[in-house]
């Protein structure tokens, strides 16, 4: 189990701070450790007092934990004064210079003001104090208020352009990546969280709920991201999964006192109703598509690169197959696609064409399969209106979110194991994550793909996925026909 520290204030009503972080970390399957920066006397109504722990005790707490429970990730919340900030800087510097080669992901949540409006950190009046931590933080997680304070701007950003301007101010001080939390935005329907990673920008949209269960939402998101990053997720996947978690937690929130309630905890983090949308702008409208519905699982799904393999597989009893020809200059490309479609009709089989959606539409293939990059250029409206099925590749939570919003006929989940058939930008997902994805998408047609062979077939099916795509398990077998028949038997 991965170890995640929270360095934060203690919230006596347990809605935010270290107590909130611990509940989130338990929900997301990591082991939490706690380093308290300050004690607060607060309720759901307000904060009556904030008292920093002594510098000596804070330093001792860090050293004690380091000797036994070295962190895979650290989430930093309330920093009450300059002395604690200096100790945190010293600690982060030691993590980055770890002589044992260990790497710790650091999430800095720049808490300046309580959700009830009170200033709870001496540093809030001089936000430049936070800048000394920026070179050591892997991710900064300000809300719109905190972004304004830290960038010394006159007002909260309302447009993506204004957000970019304020982020640019912070990046001058050694900051790497930043996610701007949009819960305080003015859009009445949606919350837009904007992730800036390197030169890339990702906008994730979720529903804005009419709720007062908002105490501790910033802590929830930052500690969730830290928990996922400790488990070696890509950052945009960690953000997408965290947004799904916090949306559900707010929807199911808890109201115990007379003030604002808090997001729920002890929930299943993975619920398809709360998967965020991936958009290119705040005002983008997501079109609704209706692709061919596939009522039953696809079963065994070989992916092959020639018409010869299509002929053999269909003759051996395979009833779902994909023709993947990667060379667009291949002289018989259109002819082979036309023949593949005809063979599918002859055998009453489901023949998918990879990438070449225009030809798949032209010859009325059963379906077309597209990668994530292809979704940006393909005419999805034309594909839907043609009546053919659409399959989409995904490699984690972020791409699953993008796929779900267009509602394809099936979603391919990969790559599960290391594969050498194509160069992959993603890491192998593994069986544990495949199980999460299968449960999340239980009401959709899913296909596992990537490095799957007969030796691990049973393990893959045990995750709950109903269909499996294979690339070399048949074509590189000593006896391809026997291999195909063997794999078909798993779906009998």
Tell me, what's the shape? elongated
**Helix content class:** 25-40%
Poorly predicted regions are none
Number of domains: 2
Reported for the largest beta sheet, the result is: 10 strands, mixed
Strand percentage:
15-25%
Oligomer: single chain
Strand line-up of the largest beta sheet: 3-2-1-4-5-6-7-8-9-10
SS content category? alpha/beta
CATH topology of the largest domain: UDP-N-acetylmuramoyl-L-alanine:D-glutamate ligase
**What do the pLDDT scores average to?**
94
Could you give me the name of the CATH homologous superfamily of the largest domain? Ribokinase
Rg result: 25 Å
Number of helices: 16
Q: Judging by the overall fold, what is the CATH architecture of the largest domain?
A: 3-Layer(aba) Sandwich
- Report the count of strand segments: 18
What this model shows, in words?
With 492 residues, the protein is of the alpha/beta class. α15 links the parallel β17 (446-448) and β18. α2 (55-66) packs parallel to α3 (82-96). It folds into two domains: 3-279, UDP-N-acetylmuramoyl-L-alanine:D-glutamate ligase, CATH 3.40.1190; 300-489, Aldolase class I (TIM Barrel), CATH 3.20.20. It has a ten-stranded mixed sheet with strand order 3-2-1-4-5-6-7-8-9-10, with helices on both faces. It starts with a strand and ends with a helix. It contains 16 helices and 18 strands.
